[in-house]
Amino acid sequence: MVALLGAAWALSGELAGQQARGLPEWVRFLPGALGSGLLAMAGFSAVALAIGVIAGWDKISRLITALELDGVGAFLVGVLHLLYLPNFLVWSASFLSGAGFSVGLGSVVAPMGTSTGILPAIPILGALPAPGPGGPAAFLWLIAGLLMGSVAGARMVRRLPQPPTLLVSLGLGALAGVLTGVALLAVAVLTRGDLGVLRLVGLGPRLPELSWLAPSLGLLGGLIGAAAARLVAPSRLIPAESVPPVDPDATEPLPFSEQTTVRI
Fold first, then answer.
1. For residues 216, 222, 228 and 231, what is the CA-based torsion angle, rounded to 10 degrees?
2. Is residue 124 part of a domain?
């Protein structure tokens, strides 16, 4: 996700200089909108991961104690967790999108329910939700997916120099939201893999579910963000042609008292 955010930022700057080559304005601002949406989702994922670690700290502590690590071993385990932190953030993003992720063959960790079976003594796994159904409150996690699309849609509409019509604004916001969801799916593909041949197989986001949930939430969020961008900035909705042009020759001269006198 970090690499994709950097690529979106670089591409946004590159396309910003292509106006003379005839690219539409919305194309030039699209990478920046996608990067903003992904950055927002990365922040929400970090918060969700932190909540999981705090809620499961007792289990994490017991797992660390059960490993009986010395100083070097504890340091290496900590470094290993830091190296996998980008993967954990993407898995959290998949969780917030409703698709969830897998920590082994046949396991499911999702807002609607968790079923993991027997897991190895890896400390971070103590942050997983308790097995069982998620309950009605689990739907609140999906707000993060909506906000991801909303940020992308609002950024897309706000960046346009000439305010488009309401229909065009909604279309561009929806496009930015959907593509942000597709970008999240592309990153999720890169974080799947195996750490063995028996138990830790198929680790990572559940791609079939994420392939439609992330773009769908992005679509709805993009529409909301585009509509909100027009409501909070009504001054930007005044078409440029409705503003009377300023005649440079019609400026009034300064009063005599404000004129500068040059003595020779």
1. -120
2. yes
CB-based contacts of 52, cutoff 8 Å, min separation 6: 92, 127, 128, 129
Q: Which helix (H) or strand (E) holds 109?
A: strand 108-110
Least Cα distance to 225 among 214, 217, 213 occurs for 217
pLDDT digits (tens, 9 = 90+) for 220-241: 999 999 999 988 865 554 444 4
| b/e 72-105 (16+ beta carbons within 10 angstroms → b) | eeeeebeeeeeeeebbbbbbbbbbbbbbbbbbbe
Residue 152 lies inside a defined structural domain of this protein: yes
140-179 pLDDT per residue, tens: 999 999 999 999 999 999 988 777 788 999 999 999 999 9
* Token pair recorded at residue 226: 């585009």
Task: Report helix angle 25-55 to 166-190, nearest 10.
Answer: 50
8 Å CB contact between 112 and 135: no
The model carries a pTM of 0.80
pLDDT tens-digit map of 75-90: 999 999 999 999 999 9
Amino acid at 134: G
The CA distance from 145 to 216, in Å, is 9
What is the count of structural domains for the chain? 1
Q: Residue 226 in contact with residue 215, Cβ under 8 Å?
A: no
Counts for the chain of helices (H) and strands (E), in that order: 8, 5
* pLDDT at residue 255 in the model: 55
Is residue 252 a part of any domain in this protein?
A: no
Which residue in 205, 208, 152 sits closest to 38, CA to CA? 152
What domain range is 175 assigned to? 2-15+26-234
CA distance 76 to 97: 32
